[in-house]
Amino acid sequence: MIEPTIADIKEAAARISPYTHRTPIFTSATVNRLAEAEVFFKCENLQKTGAFKARGAINAVYSIAKDSAGNGVATHSSGNHAAALAYAARCRGIKAFVVMPENAPPVKIAAVAEYGAEIKFCPPTQKDREETLQAVVRDRGAVAVHPYNDHKVIAGQATAAHELLEEVPRLDALITPVGGGGLLSGTLLAVSASKRNTAVYGAEPAGADDAYRSLQAGHLIPVQDPDTIADGLRTSLGNLTFPIIQKYAAAILTVDDPIIIGTMKMLWERMKLIVEPSAVLPVAVLLHRREQIRANRIGLIISGGNVDLDYLPWQSGSKRKE
Amino acid sequence: MIEPTIADIKEAAARISPYTHRTPIFTSATVNRLAEAEVFFKCENLQKTGAFKARGAINAVYSIAKDSAGNGVATHSSGNHAAALAYAARCRGIKAFVVMPENAPPVKIAAVAEYGAEIKFCPPTQKDREETLQAVVRDRGAVAVHPYNDHKVIAGQATAAHELLEEVPRLDALITPVGGGGLLSGTLLAVSASKRNTAVYGAEPAGADDAYRSLQAGHLIPVQDPDTIADGLRTSLGNLTFPIIQKYAAAILTVDDPIIIGTMKMLWERMKLIVEPSAVLPVAVLLHRREQIRANRIGLIISGGNVDLDYLPWQSGSKRKE
What we know:
The first copy, chain A, has 322 residues and is an alpha/beta fold. The first copy, chain A, folds into two domains: 6-52 and 154-302, Rossmann fold (3-Layer(aba) Sandwich); 54-144, 3-Layer(aba) Sandwich (Rossmann fold), CATH 3.40.50.1100. Chain A has helices at 6-16, 29-35, 53-63, 66-69, 80-92, 106-114, 126-140, 151-167, 182-194, 210-217, 241-248, 257-271, 277-288; strands at residues 25-26, 38-43, 73-75, 96-101, 118-122, 143-144, 173-177, 199-205, 251-255, 297-302. In chain A, the strands form two sheets. A six-stranded mixed β-sheet of chain A has the order 1-2-10-7-8-9, with helices on both faces. A four-stranded parallel β-sheet of chain A has the order 5-4-3-6, with helices on both faces. In chain A, helix 9 (182-194) links the parallel strand 7 (173-177) and strand 8 (199-205). In chain A, helix 1 (6-16) crosses helix 3 (53-63) and helix 3 (53-63) crosses helix 8 (151-167). The longest helix of chain A has 17 residues, at 151-167. The radius of gyration of chain A is 18 Å and the shape is globular. The two termini of chain A are 35 Å apart. Residues 318-322 of chain A have low confidence and may be disordered. Chain A binds chain B through residues 24, 26, 45-46, 50, 265, 268-269, 271-275, 305, 309-310, 312, 314-315, and chain B through 24, 26, 45-46, 50, 265, 268-269, 271-275, 305, 309-310, 312, 314-315.
């Protein structure tokens, strides 16, 4: 399959604009000082549904032909993609089916339910999730929308970097988190199409560093037993996102959880913005792997702000297994 | 003394602009739906030092004549005004002396110390604080800058509403928190000078409702044993702020702490913004005293975002007496 082009990204930007925010770009004197750079935060935590995932989900859902869309859409993500898909389906006036493990955190169940999705609970194994999703697709005729391994989703995620480059044209570097690779690969395509001299880095938790390992090995290595607070980044790259990352990314840089948690608290304190652990990765990498990023003007995509406010990672005894 | 005029406010706006942010104005689909109104959030939590107080402190510090400023400035606030005064003094390159009670929360001490102020600790009584401040003024020649009962401070705080009205000209109502009354009286003057038909409300915690009582009685009634989570609003109106509020305010509306805490959590979840308890008051009043506010387009001043992230008010066992 041919990777999305700049035409696809522009088409996505036009398609999603009625249903998504053009998110603000913030700066922080504190972060500039610590990084010894000019840093621009593209704040997707202020996006509809609280994460960039709304971009890809809207682009995918509105790209489905009318004949096929009538039976709704489906996914087995339990995180930000599930809420985004539910939101996108509600915007289009179709059904969303979301397969969630029985032990999913109540706050995530509530977020998906609030957007009007029909939730299908299943035992908490990958096999059960996939089988339950297949059953929904088979029995209800719903269209499955993958959280990242889908060119419409990738083109949608690309619009965040596309907007950032429109407003801040000269960037030496751009950093995004990397989980399944939808945001990173979309960003890479947007930057590549811009013909600018901007190095793009993926920021990954050390406890789920499959992108780093896959690039080193030259082939996809799925993550085994991911162990990180960054719940949005525990997934593995897909066969559509990996080749794009392999082709264009400057590097994958990793940091461990204590750094992620410390940086998260610093951002809450200094920028007064609620950012989720996964969204902290670009800042953590910027401040703690600085010597590997040769750049003076740096864009960061702050991917989301969905946090269970009753369990904050810097509070002792509040860490919660999912 | 004559209250600040629109010329004073414009002068303040010009004076503070190199050292303060023109803060963004946000909207929230959730709040609009709940309030059945178009609501505009002037986000002073994103202001320098994390609160609108930077405006008044900068205006006051830069208004001191060169001959008098050399010995520095002083205050006995331990909250946002202290950090703002320390910041303003650092901008001007003069000393700041901040008198704080020995039992002040470490997070507040750190904030003031970080801006380079010299901290003078004293026993935690109002009398000790005032005497220690007087000693600093007498012995060091520092100029005391009151947190709100000062026309330069009031003119500085007025610039927030001034900016909001520039960007959102047609507002039926504007709501600010009220503690000592600096922000509310400044807002009233800015709105009054604008000649627009905008009703201005003060939002006050029921546990520190001296502004409400003072307006009812027609004379200043200082607060007795304030009991509220909104730590920035435990103070009493001053003899400069009260007459302005008496003359121009549409009403003072109060809500109790459980409403403040619930609204605060909702704002963190929905808007992904860190707002402190005092800053929540305008939203809490809008949603819970809606019938008393006849307006369709409503501006709110979100006064600050300085919160001890280790003690969040909705977490059981985390409430901390100060």
